[in-house]
Design brief:
This protein has 301 residues and is α/β, with parallel strands linked by helices. Helix content is 23%, strand content 12%. Strands 1, 2, 3, 4 and 5 form a 5-stranded mixed β-sheet that branches. A two-stranded parallel sheet has the order 6-7. Strand 3, helix 4 and strand 4 form a beta-alpha-beta unit. The chain binds 2-acetamido-2-deoxy-beta-D-glucopyranose (2 copies). One 2-acetamido-2-deoxy-beta-D-glucopyranose binds next to loops.
Length: 301
Amino acid sequence: MRSGLSGVSVSLVLGAIVIFSNAAIAQENNVCPTFKDYHTIKNNSRCWYDLAVEFNAPEIIQRMGYPLLTYKVRTADGYILTMFRIPNDHVKNTNARKHPIYLQHGLVSTCATFLGKGRDSLAFILSDAGYDVWLGNYRGNPYSEEHENMTIYDQEYWNHGTISYISEDDLQLESVPVFFNQLPGGTSIKILNHAADFVLGNFRKYNYGRLNPKYYGTSSSPIYDIKKLKLPVYLVFSGQDWVTPEADALNLWRNLPERSRHGMLKINRNVFNHIDMIYGRHAREWVYDPLVRVLNKAISS
Ligand SMILES: *[C@@H]1O[C@H](CO)[C@@H](O)[C@H](O)[C@H]1NC(C)=O
Ligand SMILES: *[C@@H]1O[C@H](CO)[C@@H](O)[C@H](O)[C@H]1NC(C)=O
């Protein structure tokens, strides 16, 4: 429910899927998990080739040989967001076509989060499994910079006063994995503040400080009442995650209403941090494949 992988909801169909060519894939490594690894990038088994370093999200989808549709969505407050869709109507056996599934990226990121691992990317795994995959992009990231009446150069676009645009240069590289070089996702201080609020354990609406009364009619921002959740939640977390520690995940679980507790998966490995959910070498084996099995089972029951 916090930053990162969240709320993914989906099944399995082989054979009916057209095997696409992926000619562009045999490339040299261009991403490593640490600065040190970059010294031996060419011959370092910890590094890999990531299409997302060189290509944007729609280009990756097309280069990987998947169909692509692009949608613009207008929010109630005038932001125009881009959604990409990998439709599943190429799956000839209509029984094998699964539900639509919406993937929402986390903080300081874009939907390329789900596309950067070649065929082992979550978006393509789901598509291969027959799902109709939709990729969202937060306001302010490079795919969603439009607004009905404003541009990203208007302060008001980033909402209220002190908001500024975070570039990669503003991030402390020591603490941010190197592969953020491919994540130029625009994020406002507002969103970062909000995330910090979550990290501090306050699962609440954005805190406008002294402006809270204007927006909420109360001096503090309202807590999200997750007891009201109706949809099933399947939590995937790691015992080794510094962004979303196990205690937070379990706390969220405890606060979910009974009807929403679909299940949870704890990744119990010595090394598996937040970012490994997306870029870890074992992401497919430990996270994505199990997730697809959960989804398949959920929709078939
Ligand atoms: C790459 O590394 C492996 C194992 O570290 C080594 O056996 C191999 O000779 C290296 N190849 C090159 C081209 O350096
Ligand atoms: C954009 O401007 C139009 C015309 O002034 C106005 O009607 C509309 O409400 C504005 N949209 C937003 C989201 O402020």
